[in-house]
Amino acid sequence: MRGGTVFFKPATQTTIGEIVALTGSVPRADAPLDRVITGVAPLERATSSDLAFISQAKYAKLLKSSRAGACLATEALEHLVPGQITVLRALDPFYAFVLVARQLFPDALRPMSVFETTGTAASAVVHPTALIAAGVTIDPGAVIGPRARIDTGTIIGANAVIGPDVEIGRNCSIGPGVTIVCSLIGDEVIVHAGCRLGQDGFRFHSSPRGHLKVPQLGRVIIEDNVEIGAGTTIDRGGSADTIIGRGSKLDNLVQIGHHVSVGRNCVIVAQCGLAGSVVLGDHVVLGGQVGVADHLEIGGGATVAAKSGVTSNIPPGGKWFGYPARQAREYFRSLAALRRLAKATKPD
Amino acid sequence: MRGGTVFFKPATQTTIGEIVALTGSVPRADAPLDRVITGVAPLERATSSDLAFISQAKYAKLLKSSRAGACLATEALEHLVPGQITVLRALDPFYAFVLVARQLFPDALRPMSVFETTGTAASAVVHPTALIAAGVTIDPGAVIGPRARIDTGTIIGANAVIGPDVEIGRNCSIGPGVTIVCSLIGDEVIVHAGCRLGQDGFRFHSSPRGHLKVPQLGRVIIEDNVEIGAGTTIDRGGSADTIIGRGSKLDNLVQIGHHVSVGRNCVIVAQCGLAGSVVLGDHVVLGGQVGVADHLEIGGGATVAAKSGVTSNIPPGGKWFGYPARQAREYFRSLAALRRLAKATKPD
Amino acid sequence: MRGGTVFFKPATQTTIGEIVALTGSVPRADAPLDRVITGVAPLERATSSDLAFISQAKYAKLLKSSRAGACLATEALEHLVPGQITVLRALDPFYAFVLVARQLFPDALRPMSVFETTGTAASAVVHPTALIAAGVTIDPGAVIGPRARIDTGTIIGANAVIGPDVEIGRNCSIGPGVTIVCSLIGDEVIVHAGCRLGQDGFRFHSSPRGHLKVPQLGRVIIEDNVEIGAGTTIDRGGSADTIIGRGSKLDNLVQIGHHVSVGRNCVIVAQCGLAGSVVLGDHVVLGGQVGVADHLEIGGGATVAAKSGVTSNIPPGGKWFGYPARQAREYFRSLAALRRLAKATKPD
What are the chain C neighbours of A229 within 8 Å (beta carbons)? Predict the structure, then answer.
């Protein structure tokens, strides 16, 4: 293997002075404002053309040996940065660092054409009634069905499949191998490789004779600025819609059942499963592998720890643990009680 | 977004009289039998051309404000339906409702061609030795290998891949992006987008030097009327077959190991994992995210609650909870005991 | 269905004498060394042309009725094999059995071309700057991006997508529908159908205003002889790489977060989730549905039981259970303590 292969080269270069202007950070009086910065990296990996950052004292030990060209730091940590590194004071060094990274590496912000082209690839199959705006990229092997509408700036990945009447907004990235049917997608949405959106939910009339499929007539609505991780599945609603609210981020291999409503700016970590008709408020955070039973509501701002199982409604704002999910205080008391009891018990 | 986009239009329309005939429900003497019904919806969303249903008293409060044209109801609830809604008495209102929904919206019953075509798309790649019956639809980009047999009425989705010698019966829907190798599929089977069927199981000869792959020579057998959710993976058996019994329904992102045998009419909810050689009887229900260890048997009719971990055989018919999975009585006693103990304990 | 369909026919046939030579097993003096063996099977399914094996006394009851032509057995069990079965003594009968199976059924050792062809299929889309070695097979509908390098003996499955600059070594099998970007893949690697490698990790700058995506500039490195199960997702690192060490085996639907480092010869069973920056030593075994929280280290040789949740570092070599994961002794004491307590408690 060519160990030196680099997949992302900076789209541009910047200077200390431009970083100051972009981030509102504060240089020292003697800072070399015309020094060129071409990359971003953590302290321990940065070279003299890289920008790094420090916002927690526990990483201060990395400063001494760092070869970073510049480092964003909080006021409290600024004095620890060695003299050969240009220090830039910032209220939120990580935020400033991310702003610079996004400017230098725009190609890493969303899945790009794997063919590095624009327009519609010769081998893509686009139905004549589909409405493809100017400035759309359709990669090889993608299939776009009748009356689908795809707006400007959007990339449809190789071998992705877009069904009839689906609408996709501006500046979206639909990854390779994605399937989207019965869905309306907003602007600036990222759907990573292999996601499945809009297939019908898991709903049957069950009797001793078997399970009769109930037609699912709803849709999937993905609002603006949502990101959906690789391999995630989102079923369409039965009569009402399944909705992922603006700005929410879903990780890989998440399962969203029919008629789920996810609020705005939620974070759903990998392998979570939300059963049918679950409602999440805004800014809910679900750790990895969490399960939520059907028809439950989780209030805005609540956090559920990884691997928890939610079996009843959760009010806004607290932190929940375990299965069945309980508040932190009760959960940790249970753990402690059990640990003490176990110490006093011999195994069967 | 065009909020008004509708993905499913009724294939036909019906009347109160025809609904009575189809479902065996009982209208009142003055029912307008020629009233036209074009849709189905829950009470709170139904319009005057929609059929709704009520089978539980707790939803009775929705009746007053409902604008449904007609409503199926149990004998016990029939009298609560307001006069402007045509009421139809039914033993099982939900079942009758599903029958009508299926008649009005046949396109929602299984994944259809995303190109809305029939026959073999020009960009599909079908091996000359494959046997494709009349009445099969093969969507753009699908790949069908040597000697595969696909029977009439079946749809192969866009960019799906069907391997050598695979057989698929009548009236199946294979979703977009599905991969099927080393498998025999019955009739009326639905395989949703992105499923992976027939790859070899996870079996090695392990030693301190590493893990030597054991050839897996068995098959995947999917019996009639099975449904498999999006992104689900089913490995083929090592020497015997992996079998999914007639009428069983698997949800999204389920993992079925090699040589598993699932009985008839089982329900396996999303993200369950069944390790190698597990045997499920008929009518077993596994809630979401359940795990079952290898070589275990779960008796017919048993139900395992979501997120449980099954570590020993389960007899037929009971309800099981937790990890390790226990019967309801023991599980809830454990929870209660721990809760009381925790109340009496301070955290560490 | 044609119940008799066989997907794997032996590529060759062998004899008792050749098996003795290949495996170092020891025949009895009167063994028919020229007897032809064409298959492998477990004792209960073997026919007279099949090789079987026995290495555990608990399966001895299968010997009497077995119709196997030959059977590998440990010294302790050898005398139990009936006279009509040719017995071959081996130190590790299963290992010897696997060696023979691998010789007879090489096609079952990795995903093969579903079109049974070699070279580049007419419908594959290969960028003119991609470097495709002689002896590479590219199945129909596959898409290979600019400057990708694919070495000899490798198969790229139907409708797979390989991104720009990706490198894939010798004798790899990339399954149908796989997506690989920003990755370097060694030799003899198997990537099963529908895997997603190299998409960016789940990393944001979060504030009350929302979640700002952090560019992920690292790579995925897959070392030699790794196997990755169907539907598994592996995110690329943020600045450093995500690494899967030589000889490690991942099952289906596993999630590997950004900057994870998996050691050599690890085994990760289906539906495990490893959060960002987790480090596994060599020979770590994770049972199914295990979750590991971010930045944790699991020492070499440690085993974590299925469904466990790892919330703190684990030293090398032990066996861990539950959530939070504890050592066997403590875990089973807890279970026993709780069981006794529950017996003495009435449910709420």
Answer: 199, 202, 233
Contact A146, B139 (CB under 8 A): no
Ranges in chain A annotated CATH 3.40.1390.10: 14-109
Q: Find the CB nearest B108 among A215, A293, A333.
A: A215
Q: Name the minimum distance, in Å, from the CA of A94 to any CA of chain C.
A: 7
User: How many other C-beta atoms lie within 10 A of the C-beta of residue B128?
Assistant: 5
- State the CATH architecture for B14-109: 3-Layer(aba) Sandwich (3.40)
Of C165, C275, C309, the CB nearest to A7: C165
> Is C258 designated active site?
yes
Write out the CATH class of domain C178-330. Answer: mainly beta
For A56, list phi and psi in degrees, rounded to 5: -130, 135
Burial C208-225 (b: 16+ CB within 10 A, else e): eebbbbbbbbbbbbbbbb
Which pLDDT value is given to residue B1? 46
Which chains share 3+ C-beta pairs under 8 angstroms with B? A, C
B3 CB neighbours in chain A (<8 A) are 184
Instruction: For chain A, give every residue range classified as CATH 2.160.10.10.
Output: 125-330
- DSSP-derived letter for residue B314 is B
**What is the tens place of the pLDDT at every residue in A258-302?**
999 999 999 999 999 999 999 999 999 999 999 999 999 999 999
Exactly one of A192, A258, A259, A283 is catalytic; name it.
A258
With CB atoms and an 8 Å threshold, state whether C115 touches B184: no
What ipTM was estimated for this complex? 0.97
Which residues in chain B have Cβ-Cβ distances shorter than 8 Å to A236? 7
Helix axes B328-343, C328-343, angle to 10 degrees: 100
Q: Where in chain C is the domain with CATH 2.160.10.10?
A: 178-330
Burial A306-339 (b: 16+ CB within 10 A, else e): bbbbbbeebeeeebbbbbebbeeebbbbbbbbbb
Distances (CA, A) of A239 to B50, B211, C87: 12, 49, 65
Gap between the Cα atoms of B227 and B223, Å rounded: 10
What's phi and psi for A153, nearest 5 deg? 85, -5
The C-alpha angle with vertex B65 and arms to B64 and B68, in degrees rounded to 5, equals 95
Catalytic residues of B: 258
**How many Å apart are CA B253 and CA C189, to the nearest integer?**
24
pLDDT digits over A100-116, tens only?
A: 999 999 999 999 999 99
Cα radius of gyration (chain C): 24
CA torsion, ordered C281, C282, C287, C293, to nearest 10 deg: 20
| Residue where the block lists tokens 């139904």 | B46
Structure tokens that stand for A198 in this block: 């809009």
Query: Please, is A6 exposed, middle or buried when counting C-beta atoms within 10 Å of its C-beta (0-12, 13-18, 19+)?
Result: exposed
Asked whether A101 and A95 are in contact (CB, 8 A), the reply is no
User: Closest-CA residue in chain A for C129?
Assistant: A115
CATH-assigned architecture of domain A125-330? 3 Solenoid (2.160)
